[in-house]
Amino acid sequence: MRLLTVYLDAVGNYLHVRGRRDILRELEENLQSRIEDKEEELGRPLTEREQQALLLAHGTPLEVAARYGGHQGTLTFGRQLIGPEFFPMYRMVLVANWIISAMIHGGLALSRVQVEEPKAFFLTVVIQFAVITAIFCVVDLLQRRSGGVPPALGDNHQFPPTYLRDVPRWQSLNGFLAWLVLTAWWALIPSYPMLLIGTAANFIQFSPAWDRFYWPILLLLVAGLVQRATNFFRPEWNWLPPVTRLGINVIGLLLIYPIHLSAPYFTAASLGGPGAPAIARVFDALTWWVAVAGFSFFFLTQIALNGWMCVCHARFLQRQRKEQAS
Amino acid sequence: MPDAPDSFENLRLELRRGCLVVAALAQLRVEHYGYTLRKALADHGLDIDENTLYPLLRRLETQGLLESEWREENKRNKRFYRLSADGERTLQLLLEEWRGINGALDRIIAPARSLQGAGRR
């Protein structure tokens, strides 16, 4: 009955909280009766493929939910900007961003490291709303232009949903190789600074601040490697990527603040010549923009996406436990 | 020009929609759960899609025309529906209305048929 649970879970994603449990119970009862009837007719249990066909004939999760008065909403201003397929994820990403911003601003205000004005917080909230909404509108528009709903969210071919499928081995292998190159590159930087700063390594050198975050970053990269290697041997551990990546990105985000405080990141080399301090300042600014500004956004997005995946897994597990208990 | 099969399908669905409500209400004079109700309707020649039936039952219950109760049968919890007192009254009114429409339609269709027959001769 794993597939049935997955199917109901997918339908539940699109239903309003009110009445959801009742609808799913009834749907479950009906589908179980259908499966049993079919099994009686064939005189044997249904294979997984046959169960899948039966469930798909019943309708895609989005279609089924829509019959019960719909989905969890859309974003519409005159015309629909974000459809029901993307809306739950959009809402989740937006709320996660707001919560994290509130935590950061609240933390800074409480620790009195930096005087935080409410205006700054509200400006962040508005910017996040504008950027995230714009991104989802574009994704939704492109998806519709390319001919329909995103496969992961509503198409017949994507049942069971991606997050409950085995992690393909080719994906783990590709990821592992790419991550291995990245980890090796980072590991070699202290010995070969030119891998990071090119020929500027002749004029500037790393400041002692690097020691504070070099090892934590290396450990995070190794954690990514271990996750991919594990999934190569255990593809059925589909919960491992979102859980590991959520952890890695949360720690990454937490590292941003010490990185921000660690500036300057480069100093002039003893034989760097008179232009070396200016080069160090340019690389400092670049590092700040990439590490602090760029990666903050990257980590926040990844936290929201992987957090959403973890929520989906947790809900699925909870449902499975209830089913076993009953 | 509208696509003929498409417009027929739309009109057919429109025609069926009201009839399904009457059929479901009438069938639920005897208690059923969703799955057996669907089978009972199908046995009488009225196939109804599950994704139409279940939301319809919920809607009729919200309107107070049906009552439901979760009960165990064959070691499984099932939701049994039956017609409420309000539902019975509404069903009577709907049946009267339906008979009226049916009679009127017969009277409209019969002369048209005889005209067609005369035309052929």
Q: Report Rg of chain A.
A: 25 Å
How many structural domains are formed by the residues of chain A?
3
Give the N-terminus to C-terminus distance of chain A in angstroms.
Answer: 13 Å
Largest interface pair: A-B, 17 and 14 residues
User: What is the average of the pLDDT values of chain B?
Assistant: 87
In round numbers, the mean pLDDT of chain A is 81
Task: Label the overall shape of chain B.
Answer: elongated
Helix/strand-derived category of chain B reads: alpha+beta
Which sequence of SSEs, written as H and E, runs from N to C of chain A? HHHHEEHHHHEHHEH
User: Per DSSP, what share of the residues of chain A sits in E-state strands of 2 or more residues?
Assistant: under 5%
Largest sheet of chain B: 3 strands, antiparallel
**How much helical structure, as a percent, in the residues of chain A?**
55-70%
- % residues in beta strands of chain B: 5-15%
Helical amount of chain B? 55-70%
Query: What's the end-to-end separation of chain B, in Å?
Result: 33 Å
Q: How would you describe the overall organization of this protein?
A:
The complex is a heterodimer of chains A (about 325) and B (about 120). With about 325 residues, chain A is mainly alpha-helical. Chain A has three domains: about 1-65, no CATH class; about 70-160, no CATH class; about 160-325, no CATH class. Chain A contains eleven helices and four strands. Chain A is elongated, with a radius of gyration of 25 Å. In chain A, about 20% of the residues are buried. Chain B is α+β, with helices and mostly antiparallel strands. Helix content of chain B is about 70%, strand content about 15%. Chain B is built from four helices and three strands, in the order αβααββα. Chain B has a three-stranded antiparallel beta sheet with strand order 1-3-2. The mean pLDDT of chain B is about 85. At the A-B interface, helix 2 and helix 4 of A face helix 3 and strand 3 of B.
